[in-house]
């Protein structure tokens, strides 16, 4: 079903819809002109028998013009072009078929023009009239003063009635447009084909010429019935679509909902939200103008017409705040404030105002999560807090963006071509699958939903170091060995660059959604895999005992000029005091253990403990028990501990639940086992695949508890960034902060307290605060960089002993 104008889009009445309508109206007007010209030329040919050759030549030119006007329809254009070429040769023959021309050309096309195009014009008049009425009603509704309730009610009632009328008229208008566009093909071709068959019958002199044209004409004759059937089917489908949209509009009227707006940061066109708002001008008159606003690419922009270049209202949403405005006469107003200016806007209803405020807030938060330092630096008020964790004055390595991330990811074997279609030089990636994609396949992956694939640009987005390492651990070769294991066996053809989108989409859905090509392991294979992973975890753990001891930690020092507040928090259990003002300088005082480098396990002599605490005891050794049954969830469980991302990806492909619970081992989850394994990347992989960061084991301990007990600072930092609940208590009523204080792990204590302070600051600033404390952002970014790029700075392996008094 080919729809020229989308029914959904017409209800928005967006600039795109208006632009499409203008284009269609111009197209229909030109079509009418060309058809009228063709009909008049045919009449002239009939009446002027003596001037047949000249009239016939002009008629042929008219056909060529009609073919040129129908360049978007290959069937019409190619057919009419071929007919015109044949008719040009027939000008030398002196046979006139006025009667057939009267029936085939004049009557049919005039009927089409008088009936169908006339209905279109009548619908256009109604549409133009109701559009003006709607615009007037919107302006009147917006101008209604707050303190005059009767005017407000009157304006609201008029607007509601006008909107309802507009929806009916615009849907009828769009239906008429689509039906006309669908019918024009069959009407034109049927008329011309009849005229051409008349020439074949009566012009014996042109037999040789038409013998070459006859196969094409027969082919079109066979297609004509199908075209008529298709046109009727399209009309029926469009009428059904029209009825569905009309019912949907009626339901919206019943619920008094103006429209449905949703914030989608992963939209294919980059527009997170869009719609009409009134904007107050910055001139002396403070006039209000209705504009089409949108949130896209971390900016707030608006435009008057679809063809106009968008006007940027806010260049960088990270620098802004949004708030309600109740101190002005107009209703439903809100204000977006930046350091240099403010923009006052008005929605059409309270629901729309709340939706826009929420969208701006979400955009601000998203911009902060995806921010990178390459080419986008914010002015910092506390510049002294940005370098205390640097070693030797060397500049910190920030989140990668652009070519740096691209080069690292494409260096992995198999990543230089799209994972699904083989298109060279991919520029997109699926971060939860660990593969690279071309732009077409990335759009298809987005349509699957984030529960199947999370798409990110390799050149436009910023890349956290742990996420970049995840991409380098997997790659197209590893994933295709899993998801295409049975492709050749089943005889499925892998798409190639340039294949139709629907074929590529069908293949990708079969590959990742249906997992049709994944090879299911036998029970014996699954058992051997699980046992092998458990033994691999033991080998990795035992190998750490032979590593050379690390030197003792340096004496804590403060940088000159550091601003450490005197405010402190005293632990009743340990008597340890830690600065709680959120300053970064305190982090330089005592390095702690990070999540161990991926693939490495290191153990160093523990730091000296306070006199009140005994030396720590080792963690409970992981022991493999013969389970009741082997499952993909058990494979994921042990693969997470063994730090084997390919085996983890294979388990998920076999249907493993990412939050699978091992009831035989204190209800531990794969994410808790990833903490035990000491790998930051395995934790990141599970979180990207929807692992629950707060799921607890039988002892009431979540991943944050376990990371704190093991002294894995990098994992603590990662879980706090991903929303881990630091206030959760285990069965001994101990929170992660209590455990970190008892273990005297200054770095983890600092991170937990900073996260708590940042949360309290945001609550104190109100519901519209998004950015949080700048020092908090910087410190967590520094820990993320060190955990992935220089774990030795944080390697002081000190475990928590739950039996310690």
Structure description:
This protein is an alpha+beta fold and 805 residues long. It folds into 4 domains: 248 residues, Up-down Bundle (Substrate Binding Domain Of Dnak, Chain:A, Domain 2), CATH 1.20.1270; 99 residues, Pleckstrin-homology domain (PH domain)/Phosphotyrosine-binding domain (PTB) (PH-domain like, Roll); 112 residues, Orthogonal Bundle (Annexin V, domain 1), CATH 1.10.220.150; 227 residues, Serine Threonine Protein Phosphatase 5, Tetratricopeptide repeat. 51% of the residues lie in helices and 8% in strands. The protein has 24 helices and 14 strands. The strands form 4 sheets. It has a 7-stranded antiparallel sheet, covered by helices on one side. It has a 3-stranded antiparallel sheet with strand order 10-9-11. A two-stranded antiparallel sheet has the order 8-12. Helix 2 runs antiparallel to helix 5. It is flat. It starts with 6 loop residues before the first helix and ends in a 16-residue tail after the last helix.
Describe, in short, the structure shown.
The protein is an alpha+beta fold and 805 residues long.
Q: What is the total tally of β strands?
A: 14
Query: Which architecture name of the largest domain does CATH use?
Result: Up-down Bundle
Number of helices: 24
Residue stretches low in confidence (pLDDT < 50, at least 5 long) are 371-398, 542-621
Characterize the overall form.
flat
Task: Break the fold down into its secondary structure elements and pairings.
Layout: H1 7-12, H2 15-47, H3 52-69, H4 74-90, H5 98-143, H6 149-202, H7 207-254, E1 271-280, E2 288-296, E3 299-303, E4 311-314, E5 321-325, E6 333-337, E7 342-346, H8 350-369, E8 400-401, H9 403-410, E9 428-430, E10 435-437, H10 439-448, E11 455-457, E12 462-463, H11 465-473, H12 476-483, H13 487-490, H14 501-513, H15 523-543, E13 568-570, E14 577-579, H16 632-641, H17 645-653, H18 670-677, H19 680-688, H20 703-710, H21 713-721, H22 736-742, H23 746-765, H24 774-789
Antiparallel strand pairs: 1-2, 1-7, 2-3, 3-4, 5-6, 6-7, 8-12, 9-10, 9-11, 13-14
Helix pairs in contact: 2-3, 2-5, 3-4, 4-6, 4-7, 5-6, 6-7, 10-14, 11-19, 12-17, 15-16, 16-17, 16-18, 18-19, 18-20, 20-21, 20-22, 21-23, 21-24, 22-23
């Amino acid at each position: 079903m080919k729809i020229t104008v989308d029914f959904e889009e017409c209800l928005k009445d967006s600039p795109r819809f208006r632009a499409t309508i203008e284009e269609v109206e111009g197209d229909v007007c030109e079509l009418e002109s060309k058809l009228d010209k063709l009909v008049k030329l045919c009449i002239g040919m009939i009446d002027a028998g003596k001037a047949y050759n000249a009239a016939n030549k002009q008629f042929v030119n008219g056909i060529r013009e009609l073919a040129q006007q129908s360049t978007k329809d290959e069937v019409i254009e190619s057919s009419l072009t071929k007919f015109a070429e044949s008719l040009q040769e027939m000008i030398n023959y002196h046979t006139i078929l006025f009667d057939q021309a009267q029936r085939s050309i004049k009557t049919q096309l005039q009927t089409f023009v008088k009936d169908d195009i006339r209905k279109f014009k009548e619908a256009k008049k109604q549409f133009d009239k109701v559009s003006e009425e709607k615009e007037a009603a919107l302006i009147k509704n917006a101008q209604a003063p707050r303190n005059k309730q009767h005017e407000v009610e009157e304006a609201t009632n008029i607007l509601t009635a006008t909107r309802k009328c507009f929806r009916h008229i615009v849907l009828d208008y769009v239906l008429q447009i689509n039906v006309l566009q669908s019918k024009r093909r069959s009407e034109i071709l049927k008329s011309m084909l009849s005229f051409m068959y008349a020439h074949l019958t009566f012009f014996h002199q042109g037999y040789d010429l038409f013998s070459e044209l006859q196969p094409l004409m027969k082919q079109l004759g066979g297609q004509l019935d199908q075209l008529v059937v298709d046109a009727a089917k399209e009309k029926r489908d469009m009428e059904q679509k029209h009825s569905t949209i009309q019912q949907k509009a009626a339901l919206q009227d019943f619920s008094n909902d103006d429209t449905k707006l949703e914030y989608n940061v992963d939209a294919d066109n980059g527009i997170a939200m869009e719609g009409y708002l009134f904007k107050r001008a910055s001139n002396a008159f403070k006039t209000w103008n209705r504009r089409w606003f949108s949130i896209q690419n971390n900016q707030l922009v608006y435009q008057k017409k679809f063809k106009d270049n968008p006007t940027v209202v806010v260049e960088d949403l990270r620098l802004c705040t949004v708030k309600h405005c109740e101190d002005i006469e107009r209703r439903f107003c809100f204000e977006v404030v930046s350091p240099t200016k403010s923009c006052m806007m008005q929605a059409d209803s309270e629901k729309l105002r709340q939706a826009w405020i929420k969208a701006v807030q979400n955009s601000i938060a998203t911009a902060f999560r995806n921010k990178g330092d390459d080419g986008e630096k914010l002015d910092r008020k506390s510049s002294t807090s940005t370098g205390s964790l640097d070693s030797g004055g060397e500049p910190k390595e920030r989140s990668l963006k652009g070519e740096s991330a691209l080069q690292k990811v494409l260096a992995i074997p198999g990543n230089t071509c799209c994972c699904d279609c083989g298109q060279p030089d991919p520029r997109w990636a699926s971060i939860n699958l660990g593969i690279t994609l071309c732009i077409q396949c990335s759009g298809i992956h987005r349509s699957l939903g984030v529960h199947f694939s999370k798409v990110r640009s390799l050149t436009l987005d910023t890349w956290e170091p742990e996420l970049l390492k995840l991409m380098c651990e997997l790659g197209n070769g590893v994933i295709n060995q899993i998801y295409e294991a049975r492709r050749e066996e089943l005889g499925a053809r892998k798409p190639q660059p340039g294949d139709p989108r629907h074929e590529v989409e069908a293949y990708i859905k079969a590959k990742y959604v249906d997992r049709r090509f994944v090879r299911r392991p036998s029970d014996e294979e699954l058992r051997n895999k699980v046992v092998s992973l458990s033994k691999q975890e033991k080998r990795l753990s035992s190998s750490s005992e032979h590593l050379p001891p690390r030197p003792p930690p340096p004496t804590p020092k403060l940088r000159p000029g550091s601003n450490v507040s005197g405010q402190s928090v005293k632990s009743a259990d340990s008597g340890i005091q830690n600065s709680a003002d959120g300053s970064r300088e305190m982090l330089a005082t005592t390095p702690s253990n990070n999540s161990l480098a991926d693939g490495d396990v290191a153990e160093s002599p523990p730091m000296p403990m306070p006199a009140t605490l005994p030396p720590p005891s080792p963690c409970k050794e992981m022991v493999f028990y013969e389970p009741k049954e082997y499952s993909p969830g058990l494979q994921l469980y042990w693969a997470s501990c063994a730090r084997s991302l390919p085996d983890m990806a294979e388990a998920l492909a076999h249907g493993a639940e990412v939050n699978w619970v091992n009831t035989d081992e204190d209800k531990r989850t794969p994410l808790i086992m990833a903490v035990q394994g000491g790998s930051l990347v395995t934790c990141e992989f599970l979180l990207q695949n929807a692992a629950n960061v707060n799921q607890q084991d039988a002892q009431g301990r979540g991943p944050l508890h376990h990371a704190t007990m093991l002294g894995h600072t990098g994992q603590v930092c990662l879980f706090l960034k991903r929303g881990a609940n630091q206030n959760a208590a285990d069965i001994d009523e101990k929170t992660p902060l209590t455990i970190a204080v008892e273990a005297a792990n200054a770095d983890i204590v600092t991170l937990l307290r900073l996260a708590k302070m940042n949360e309290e600051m945001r609550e104190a600033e109100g519901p519209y605060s998004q950015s949080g404390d700048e020092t908090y952002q910087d410190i967590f970014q520094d820990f993320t960089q060190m955990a992935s790029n220089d774990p030795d700075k944080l390697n002081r392996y000190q475990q928590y002993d739950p039996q310690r008094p």
